[in-house]
Amino acid sequence: MSNYTVAPAPHVHGGDSVKKNMLNVIIALMPAYLAGCWYFGIGALIVSCVAMVSCVAFEWFISKFILKKQPQINDLSALLTGLLLGMNLPSSLPWWMVIVGSLVAIGIGKMSFGGLGNNLFNPALVGRVFLLISFPAAMTTWPIPDQLSLFGSVDALTAATPLAYIKQGIFTTFTEADMILGNIGGSLGETSSIALILGLIYLLATRTITWHIPISIIGTVLIFTGIMHGIDPCTYASPLLHITSGGLLLGSIFMATDYVTSPMTKVGQLIFGAGIGIITVVIRLFGSYPEGISFAILIMNAVVPLINRYIRPKRFGAK
Q1: Contact of 300 with 282, CB cutoff 8 Å
Q2: Average pLDDT, stretch 68-93?
Q3: Which residues, in sequence order, are CB contacts of 108 under 8 Å at separation 6+?
Q4: If DSSP states are collapsed to H, E and C, what string results for 259-287?
Q5: Using one digit for the tens of pLDDT, what is the confidence trace for 20-74?
Q6: Facing residues of 143 across strands?
Q7: Per-residue model confidence as pLDDT tens digits over 130-146
Q8: At a CB cut-off of 8 Å and minimum separation 6, what does 137 contact?
């Protein structure tokens, strides 16, 4: 005799949807986005708006005229991809480069796989890494934060990011307050640690994501950078500097937790996060690039099918 009863329709809807989850992520990004606009001004607004508009336009065009299917831009996924792409770029990046990145993110990173739910890699990171490889000078030119730049010119003085200084063994260029609040150079959405943590709290509170991926990434980075700092504090920066600099928090909270490109199970997500953390630390400490979170996430995105194959959820009703 079966222990389960399947009732006929109508069924109660849980209230969850793609659009709702995308909207929650967009809301969670707002503190970091507003902080980026405050520190980098009109350049941040231009880059982010161009990225969002072009991502939505490219998805609509590719869906309607190439894939010959009804565009689904009202689910907010293309808008979110554009926002994430923009927040991963320098605020001084020329507008046409932003459009190229948007085309790669949507056209190659998403729609070439069949659209939302089918892509293997995070689309925004595909666009960012393409721009980094294609235009390395522009992608590594970081404007100095200027709270009054909202009313000034797009052109600004530039300086190295904290990770670039760390790569050179210089650990005292920025104060802890600057690192936490975001008064440092970097991509327009990655600099304010406190704003990104507020976004994480919102996503956890609304159950849009779980803690497994972001905490496993951050914890792995803390452990390994802590070990290296303990071995040689003059050569290797402290774990706090690694956590609050670069795109670690932005990538851990908003990029690695993408539903489509992350594992299904909680154990799989912990392995996924630990892998990202390890690769990030290896690239930062021993690689030629000062930052490694984007490459680490894309590499682990490719491993997700293997993780899902061998770490499967328990069948419904199985003991």
Answers
A1: no
A2: 95
A3: 126, 130
A4: CCCCCCCHHHHHHHHHHHHHHHHHHHHHC
A5: 999 999 999 999 999 999 999 899 999 999 999 999 999 999 999 999 999 989 9
A6: 158
A7: 999 999 999 998 888 87
A8: none
Is the pLDDT at 104 greater than 70? The verdict is yes
**Please, how many CA atoms are within 13 Å of residue 107, restricted to the half-sphere of its CB?**
14
In this prediction, residue 1 has a pLDDT band, given cuts at 50, 70 and 90, of very low
**DSSP state for residue 149 in the 8-state scheme:** G
| Structure tokens belonging to residue 71 | 């565009």
With tokens 């803390």, the residue in question is 222
Bridge partners, 158 (sequence order): 143
- Distance, CA of 141 to chain centre: 19
Q: Is the pTM of this model over 0.85?
A: yes
**CB of 137 closer than 8 Å to CB of 89:** no
How many other CB atoms are found less than 10 A from the CB of residue 228? 18
**Chain mean pLDDT for the chain:** 89
What one-character DSSP code corresponds to residue 23?
H
Residue with tokens 């980094």: 132
Name which of 278, 286, 297, 305 is nearest 221 in CA terms.
Answer: 278
Count CB neighbours of 233 within 10 A.
11
Q: Which residues pair with 95 in a beta bridge?
A: none
- Residue 158's φ and ψ, nearest 5 degrees, are -120, 160
**Residue 292 · residue 282 · CB < 8 Å:** yes
pLDDT for position 22? 97
d(C-alpha 277, C-alpha 280), whole Å: 5
Half-sphere exposure of 64 (CA within 13 A, CB side): 9
Report the candidate in 28, 37, 15, 8 with the shortest Cα–Cα distance to residue 191: 37
Residue 303 neighbours by CB distance under 10 Å = 15
pLDDT tens sequence across 298-310: 999 999 999 999 9
Q: How many CA atoms lie within 13 A of 193 on its CB side?
A: 16
